[in-house]
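This protein record is not my work; I was only asked to verify it. Take the sequence as given and treat only the tokens as open to question. I have pasted the whole thing underneath without changing anything:
***
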Amino acid sequence: MLTSVARAASSSSSSSSSHLLLVSSSLSKPSATLSLPNPFLSLSKLPLSLSKPSFPLNSRLVSSHKSPMNILNKLGFGPKTPDPSSMDSSIAQGPDDDLPAPGQQFAQFGAGCFWGVELAFQRVPGVSKTEVGYSQGLLHNPTYEDVCSGTTRHSEVVRVQYDPKECSFENLLDVFWARHDPTTLNRQGNDVGTQYRSGIYYYTPEQEKAARESMEQQQKILNRNIVTEILPAKKFYRAEEYHQQYLAKGGRFGFKQSADKGCNDPIRCYG
């Protein structure tokens, strides 16, 4: 009987070793058909179909918007990082040559992740259109991956089209200051990187004057130095379609947030 048990244990051990060997062997051979999302994109900014959560909905979402790790790039993983020395910035650094609708004006703002910023401006009476995109950088036609690399110097911005008869530029500035912390350099909360810098990008001398006066007033209120940049608006590159009106469409979890004019509901930054 003891001999039988020993033989059974030996057989079981041999079988287990065989299974372990098979698993180890299969893990050591990468599948040619395996397709993963870019590992350096923030999980919070993947298209909705790629970002369905596997954790409870009440979990706190921590953004991981960071530049690629150089060591992984050297090993051949992750996106190719754009080389700033090879970029032709003549177009990207040129003016925004798009035209607003008749009787309307443009304004551009950078205040961290553009999802929540866009929804805040969507709710403003007199704002007729909002778009999220990239501006102030060096690379022509950048992608989200390019901007996340931290080498193109773009800022995530919201371009606002508004009717000056119904909404003043000063009203837009009030929304801008209320939406973010203008004293944190290249950072808003857990979002860290130059693309999250605070900025007001003006189209007219009147907008520039109003922006500078508004910043002076804000500085009197805050006890820390404001780091917001105030610069001429440059070429606007519309972001990928899944970024547009992201929170109003449902965000990560499919819960639409109201873009109704005058709505004061709290904005859930990632949906």
About this structure: The chain is about 30% helix and 15% strand. The mean pLDDT is 80. The beta strands are 105-111, 127-135, 155-162, 187-188, 191-192, 198-202, 229-232, 237-238. Residues 53 and 253 are 8 Å apart (CA to CA).
